[in-house]
Amino acid sequence: MDINSDDLKTFITVIDSGTLSAASVHLGQTTSGVSRALSRLEDKLATSLLTRTTRRMELTEEGQLFLERARAILGAMEEAEETIRIRRQQPAGRLCVDAASPFMLHCVVPHVAEFRALYPEIRLELSSNDQITDLIEHRTDIAIRIGTLPDSTLHARALSASPLYVLASPDYLARHGAPRTPEELAGHSLLGFVQYEQGNSWPLQHANGNSLAVTPSLSASSGETLRQLALAGQGIVCLADFMTRADIADGHLVKVLEDSYTGYRQQIHAVYYRNTQLARRIGCFLDFLQQKL
Hints:
Blueprint: H1 5-17, H2 20-27, H3 31-45, E1 50-52, E2 57-59, H4 61-89, E3 93-99, H5 101-108, H6 112-118, E4 122-127, E5 142-146, E6 154-168, H7 170-176, E7 190-193, E8 201-202, E9 212-213, E10 218-220, H8 223-231, E11 236-240, H9 241-249, E12 254-255, E13 265-273, H10 280-292
Parallel strand pairs: 3-4, 3-5, 7-10, 7-11
Antiparallel strand pairs: 1-2, 5-13, 6-11, 6-12, 6-13, 8-9
Helix pairs in contact: 1-2, 1-3, 1-4, 2-3
């Protein structure tokens, strides 16, 4: 049996119209075409749905049962289409976003309330994992990554770029003095990253190039931890503008060695699988975040 929605629509239209000729007008077909379609449906069902004479049509018992089911089926299909149409107009569903803790705290969390007001049907799930590699395994739709991306099967969308600054607290500088050249950093307490060598290469011009590899006196795995240590006067740190902008504006952190800055800007990307269609809820989140950045 190979009954489709057109068969159901034809049958229901014939019943609701009262005659084949009236149904043909509604369906935009010829009367003979509607009659043949009705006969094909009866052949598929191997039963008579209507008793037809030159003056009237009546439903058989089987026809009455089939009419009830046909109306229910078409009603369910129309409801499903309406649901999808509404979802396309207003993105909906679960959206899991992963980002390093500093980015999540300084660039995502402050804007969550506005995003939820704009897209109330999206259920946000926020996580932080710097080392995530398998988005499907971690049920992650979007991962925000800072710095150079390794080659992978992931598709990347550039969101922004953030300058890096070498910073220290006024308290630290009052106690230890400010370095006048990049080479003088060797005599200071330096705050750096564990298992992230890229973060321990500071964009400073010096005698041997435009990048200075530092050996941290105190290390942490999280940029947010390093920020807090710098605010506590524990040493000099190199961190992104997106997480230290307010600290600098408030005078809680001070830029050092500005004359040696190279102008390097750290890239910020959103990554997701190439072989998946970019759902509208993912697109609207990335558009929103990019505007905020």
